[in-house]
Amino acid sequence: MSLYIDATLPEEHLGKFYQELAKLPSNLNHIQMSDGENDPKLPITFQDLATDTNVPVNTVGGYFLHARDVCYGVSFFENEARFFIECSCDENAFVLMKMLATFPVIYAYASQIEEREHQNRIVVKKPYGIHEAWVGRDFNRYLPGMYWLNLIPKSLLTKHGVTAKEINSIAISCEKSNNKNYLIQLYSSSIDWVDQVAKVDKWREDTPGVFYKQTAEIALKKGTNFLDDCDATNEWK
User: Fold this and answer.
1) What pTM was estimated for this model as a whole?
2) What is the pLDDT of residue 57?
3) Can you tell me whether residue 59 is helix, strand or coil?
4) Among 101, 134, 172, 192, which has the highest number of CB atoms less than 10 A from its own CB?
5) What residues does each domain of the chain span?
6) Which CATH architecture has domain 1-105?
7) What are residue 32's DSSP bridge partners?
8) H or E segment to which residue 82 belongs
């Protein structure tokens, strides 16, 4: 069982974000830093990162921050910072998502890796072998899915035409933060996605503005060769 948070926020807010992480319990903020996930780990604090002092590795391309109960993978694209955070339990993921809700997040969600794969990973048997690809992750085109926890700005819901009524029809909780983010919870525990998968799949299929993987699978099955299939999956990145 692997539980992850995938969160994107403006890079300009990174220092303040690290300052808030420094206030969390030690199991989430007592960190070591490495260039690669399995590279040697060196001591660092979130306060050092917030002020860009005593940083022991090159941070240009990204880095990893290892705490006792979480691992923060950090990467950068243009003016955005993306966090891919592996969490040990629902409680830690919920604490981090609640904190993220206080920032002008671009998009974030938390789920079991299996739920993410179910909604955004294609695996299709073809004559040349197995074709695999991640699809539907461009939140500028659509909502990538709907997972255990979802942190979505009101502006992004409006952009994709998803209404509060549609959200409330599937969520057990929908809270609005001061920064106009909606923290949406679909089920009590992250592992409950298995019991709710049919309901969530139907909701994604019926809700315009939300990515539905089966559409991409149909396009992939029409391809007659590897290059056609790559074009089909690239269309749904």
Assistant:
1) 0.90
2) 66
3) coil
4) 101
5) 1-105, 114-237
6) 2-Layer Sandwich (3.30)
7) 43, 66
8) strand 80-87
Task: Give tens-digit pLDDT for 169-199.
Answer: 999 999 988 768 999 999 999 999 999 999 9
Three-state secondary-structure class, residue 91: helix
For the CA atoms of the chain, what is the radius of gyration?
A: 19
Query: SS3 for 225?
Result: coil
Contact predicate 119/27, CB 8 Å: no
Coil vs helix vs strand at 155: helix
H/E/C letters for each residue in 156-211? HHHHCCCCHHHHHCCCCEEEECCCCEEEEECCCCHHHHHHHHHHHHHHHHHCCCEC
pLDDT digits (tens, 9 = 90+) for 114-172: 999 999 998 877 777 777 888 888 898 999 999 999 999 999 999 999 998 899 999 99
Task: Note the maximum CA span of the chain.
Answer: 54
CA-to-CA distance for 211 and 153, rounded, in angstroms?
17
Give the number of other CB atoms < 10 A from CB of residue 174: 16
If we measure between CA atoms, which residue out of 45, 92, 52 comes closest to residue 66?
45
Judge residue 227's burial from the number of C-beta atoms within 10 Å of its C-beta, 0-12 exposed, 13-18 middle, 19 or more buried.
exposed
Query: Which segments of the chain does DSSP mark as H helices, in order?
Result: 14-21, 26-29, 46-51, 90-100, 113-120, 154-159, 164-168, 193-206, 213-221, 226-235
Please state the separation of Cα 73 from the chain's center in Å: 11
